């Protein structure tokens, strides 16, 4: 019974983090973009540094009418936001944030396979929303989402495989237990490929072709309003948290601190995740959207070859040290 209570407590903490962390990323994005772009609006809501901007956004979404197009497939249309959001909760539950069994909601032996498979399910939410909306622009957005997933899933998987080869395990906890800081220089290519492919799967700028407002209004989300639209936004921010946490765990040592300073434990994971989340926001502000042909070319002519080269390098290093 104690074991059941312990697991329940850890999963409850994961759920609490899942509710809070994406909102903090969204609030940070408002502030960072306001500073970088010289926009004053998000700096004044509520007084001190615009602290109430997030509250104002939540109230705005709650007040909007929940509209379902007459020709839409109502059940699929209404289910799509939950399908887009919930997979990130499952992934967050298996990411180890600190040393020991108590620092993960539920350890999974095949952790890498689990997280990559479940993250791919989240894209189905966009496909469902695009197909069920009975809107040609929404359908085009859904099709672009499918094409983007197919293109960037492969380099993301190959990059993660290189870390699994280095550690000799596909368990996230096992990878952290075997992590060595000298891995970083020769795994940096894999880290860049993994992070870039993850941004593309999340449809974050500059990879936001599925929601290109100048071409297809807002893609699969065009017909969504109110809280259902807010759930899609929350799924995007939850995806940022999950991607940054996975990158920190797989390539940056997770709870391991530099120079053997592991005493901070889970705070190291939190700090690395926060820094990577800032990079995600910075990229949105700094780079224009890619064209669809540039998007596909980057995946197949650059990221896939780099990921294969990383695997080859990992194999060479493993043979050399053994």
Automatic annotation (TrEMBL):
GO cellular component assignments: plasma membrane
Lineage: Bacteria, Bacillati, Actinomycetota, Actinomycetes, Kitasatosporales
Keyword line: Cell membrane, Membrane, NAD, Quinone, Translocase, Transmembrane, Transmembrane helix, Ubiquinone
Annotated membrane topology: Multi-pass membrane protein
GO biological process, one term: aerobic respiration
Protein name in UniProt: NADH-quinone oxidoreductase subunit H
Catalytic activity entry: a quinone + NADH + 5 H(+)(in) = a quinol + NAD(+) + 4 H(+)(out)
Chain ranges passing through the membrane: 7-26, 79-98, 110-133, 154-176, 182-200, 229-253, 265-286, 298-321
